[in-house]
Amino acid sequence: MFFAADGMLETAIEVLSDFGPYPKMIAKELAQNLPFLATTKLLVAAVKGGMGREEAHERIKEHAVLAVRSRLDGASSDSLFEMVAADPHIPLTRTEIETLVADPLSFTGTAVAQVATFVATATDLAAANPVAANYRPSAVV
User: Fold this and answer.
1) Of 70, 97, 72, 99, which is closest to residue 86 (Cα–Cα)?
2) pTM
3) Is the separation of the CB atoms in 57 and 45 below 8 Å?
4) I need a labelling partner for 133 at 20 to 30 A (CA). Which of 39, 77, 89, 111 fits?
5) Interatomic CA distance for residues 14 and 24, integer angstroms
6) Distance (Å, rounded) from C-alpha 92 to C-alpha 101?
7) Residue 31 contacts by C-beta under 8 Å, 6 or more apart in sequence?
8) Measured distance CA(113)–CA(140) in Å, rounded
């Protein structure tokens, strides 16, 4: 079991050492999926605008399903926002929707603070343990 755990940790270190973010791909994925990630914000805004929660949920869900189907047929992912804004029962305009989703980082909750805390802790640990911080795994077979 020890050798298996050691192998998994060595592999994890090797994978993480080659890991890196690709900002263009992240932006592309975000643009494509933001409308679907924003449905909760749309729901809350519709309820604040006077719509019943159940009705808002059902209408937004119907539009999301239609948007997925049209996206599979080649339409832009933007169509969900267009459908919601065009729905006369949902009290949201396209401008209001764009304002709701203007800050995509607001969808991450406390993730930014959690990452900052983790980085600070890892930095302190690396400074206190330079030998461990400079460890390099052997090649993964």
Assistant:
1) 97
2) 0.68
3) no
4) 111
5) 24
6) 13
7) 77
8) 33
- Is residue 96 exposed (0-12), middle (13-18) or buried (19+ Cβ within 10 Å)? middle
Expressed in angstroms, the distance from the first to the final Cα of the chain is 18
Hunting for tokens 């932006």 — which residue is that?
Answer: 27
CA dihedral 114, 117, 119, 120 (to 10 degrees): 170
pLDDT tens for each residue of 64-101:
999 999 888 876 656 899 999 999 999 999 999 999 99
The whole-angstrom separation of Cα 85 and Cα 91 is: 8
| Residue 96 CB partners (closer than 8 Å, separation 6+) | 45
pLDDT tens profile 93-124: 999 999 999 998 888 889 999 999 999 999 99
